[in-house]
Amino acid sequence: MQPQIKSMQPEHVTQVAAIAAEVFSQPWSKESFLQALQQENACFLVACDKERVLGYCCMYMAADEGEIDNVAVIPQARRLGIRVKGSDGEKYFAHTLNNTVVAPPRMLIAFLENNINEDGSIRIPEALRYYMRKDKIEVPKK
Q1: Closest CA to 58 of 69, 47, 74
Q2: Backbone phi, psi, residue 33, to 5°
Q3: How far is it, in rounded angstroms, from Cα 100 to Cα 26?
Q4: Residue 96 is inside which H or E element, if any?
Q5: Pair 72, 65: CB distance under 8 Å
Q6: Beta-bridge mates of residue 21
Q7: Which sign does the torsion angle of CA 124, 39, 106, 90 carry?
Q8: What global pTM score does this model have?
Q9: Upper half-sphere CA count for residue 55 (Cβ side, 13 Å)
Q10: How far is the C-alpha of 138 from the C-alpha of 72, rounded, in Å?
């Protein structure tokens, strides 16, 4: 089954905090996630299967731009096996905090490839529509 992307809700926070604790050396606490969810410019998404959170992404919106702050995926859901070597010589799965390990243009390309319509317009996923204030990006008329 394909994971579903949803807006993070308070009931997801316990699982999200557990993922952060597993992935990051200085993870956000459950309370930090709950406080951040209250911010008006926050956009927090979770990828879920039937019963559990597989990963999450924390973003902050300003005008028409967004900043990716925190992304993590549970080890069992990482299919690509991408690893990096730490300063201790150990290899561990790649993750990002403050957008340090991810290439935003590649993320944008993946977003566009998965949401482009035949007429060239872009479908906005349900979880992002509130922040984008639309459900579709139309093709500019000449």
Answers
A1: 69
A2: -65, -45
A3: 15
A4: strand 96-97
A5: no
A6: none
A7: negative
A8: 0.57
A9: 18
A10: 31
